[in-house]
Here is the input.
Amino acid sequence: MSGFSSINWLIPKTLNEAVAAMEEHRGEALLYAGGTYVHEQRERGALLKIKAIVDLEGLGLDTIENGGDSIKAGAMVTLNKVIGSDAFRAAGFEALVQAAYATGPDQIKNAATLGGAVACWVPVIDIVPVLMSLRAKAVVQVARESRTIEVGDLLNGPEKTLLGKTALISGFLLPRPAPGSRSQFKKFRRSASDWAVVNASASIRSDGAGRCVDAKLVVGARADGYFSLPRTEQFLIGKQIDGKALAAVPGIVSTELTLTDHFTASADYKRSLCGFLLRDAIAGAAKIDVSQARDAKGVDRHG
Amino acid sequence: MFRKQGMRKGSTVMVEISLDVNGEEQSVSAELSEPLLTALRDRLHLLGAKRGCDHGGCGACTVLIDGEARYSCMTPLAKCQGKRIVTIEGLAADGPLDPLQENFARYDAAQCGYCTSGMILMAKALLHKMPHPSENEVRWHLAGNLCRCTGYRKIVQAVVETGKNSK
Here is the structure.
């Protein structure tokens, strides 16, 4: 494989062995999960310093376990395994399955993993905003200790996480959604197997009267990253989610985002798309026909 | 820890790798990071899987690994050991054509043919998990395989018809 100088391929059998391998080759080792993004990094010469690959396949991190309060998904769970998982068919996790389904073609979904999606921090991967909106925590192995960290707190800019060079994500804890919770994911892309230009994930909980009692909203924008939207969340909480509330969402979202121009879309266009995609995701989660928002607003150029 | 280290040849580390390709055990001497596509084409001389974009975008290199469609251009040999690899050469072997192959011929679902082996193997994986896909489902699942000649209509038709005729 061109792009590497010379490689030792290491296949640890335990997490401690994997961390030890990372420590031994500090800064010159690459954790290898599904490998779908490694290929791109290699092609543009970003891996020339790498001397060892630490292959995570032998660690048994590819299971989805139903716990009491949460579901534990291993870092090596592939996106197609997420789609086929009974555990994630439960109400509240809809967005995760939708995002996995929307991520590239089958050949990619058969290889790409949950852990890899977070660890490579590419803006904009579909799984990441969903994990954030579901308040997922990453289980991180640091030295001989295991810690849990909010997924959003791990991210530190393109291809950078706060994991450090000798830590690895072993899995994710996804809190079981409370009754009345639903989530939806939306994506705007230029072609069927393309990366998103922007994406949006809404996780909301409504009371029996249809009033929003909890919301976690996250958008992703190509080249910019992932953004929680606390102002929009506060706007929704306590409100009846109807056409009027939905119609106000794009405007509030646009006040929360500062984005940059990208060849796929200008900053203004991305900001606008984020607002309308999030509105549609909220409508889907609330089981509201989004045309109600259009009626409330009058003309909707983007809907 | 299992360390795969072998003979250093120049700046590369070569190891003996055993692969199950089309039901036969094959041995190649290569780097573990070498793409499966390179080993198939350049070492085992199985030319059915095609080199197109070489970065997981066109699907011409699609093979089946343990029954799942994968891009062989971005699958290192290290990930192939102990797994069953099927290329287009293994689909019919010396027996009758696979129904997908028959329908690709019947519906003229190929022009230059460069994408055909990847298309057929992707369709094979699809029909295994979804025996009777609709046209839209076929289009969605074949989205990772590009064809620059046919306009897709005949390819989709061939896959849908194969599904309709399967038990």
About this structure: Chain B touches chain A at residues 1-5, 8, 11-13, 31-35, 55-57, 59, 62, 68-71, 73-76, 78-79, 122, 125-126, 140-141, 143-145 (CB under 8 Å). Residues 116-129 of chain B form the longest helix (14 residues).
